[in-house]
Amino acid sequence: MASEHERGRVKTMETAFDIIETLVALDGGRISEVASELGLAKSTAHRHLTTLEELEYVVVDDGVYRPGLRFLQIGEQTRTRQEAYELAKEKVTDLAAETEERSQFIVEEYGRGVYVFRDTGQRAVHTDSEIGKRIPIHATAAGKALLATLSDERITEIIDHRGLPALTEHTITDESTLRSELEGIRDRGYSINQQENTIGLRAIGVPVEHGDGTPFGALSVSGPTHRFQGTLFEETLPNLMLGTANELELNIQYS
Prior knowledge:
By secondary structure, the protein is of the alpha+beta class. It folds into 2 domains: 9-71, Winged helix-like DNA-binding domain superfamily/Winged helix DNA-binding domain (Arc Repressor Mutant, subunit A, Orthogonal Bundle); 79-254, 2-Layer Sandwich (Beta-Lactamase). The longest helix has 25 residues, at 230-254. It has 10 helices and 8 strands. Helix 6 (83-99) packs antiparallel against helix 10. The protein has helices at 4-7, 11-26, 31-38, 42-54, 70-79, 83-99, 141-147, 152-162, 175-188, 230-254, and strands at residues 58-61, 64-67, 102-109, 112-120, 134-136, 191-194, 201-209, 215-224.
């Protein structure tokens, strides 16, 4: 018997979003490719793609369908709906300029981290942390910093729903180890990523809260292991990040 949650879902809408996500994964695809990926009849895939094209959510070129730029408009409106997001963007830019490394700001949504802003300094290492990308929240510095601000109940919900998948050999995949790590983050105020998301990359993350103490997001700065070590990694960057987060929280509270 279908659960109450499943009974409330609209199958045609679910299929439409599955098609959009498939087009993203394929970097564009033909009707036959979409149908094959999702196990749909070609006629069903054709109807959905035609409807999405008429609504201007997908574009087609020589038989290849791709998500349209209308999604960019929606995403940008979502990202700028709060003044606090623009304040976070300023700090991301400042961090990238001061450290000459890569900086980013993420929020938690449905148990995953989502990159909202990113900037790169002159020496930044470029990885696949594009805006809007969803990431396992337990495997990044910003994600762990954000997790540390959540209630035990919410953390349990996220672990139960998303699990603790390994991205590298250094990723924390044990719940008790993760919870111990989160306690340490709460004590010192910042998180450390030791190649848990990408081999060869370290990061420092700090949580950012609203004036009432509720979680807003997290900032992080990342760089290669040969630069992120010693006093820079253990003192200079943590102090910089803590100060930046404090300034951002004050700006949010009194803006």
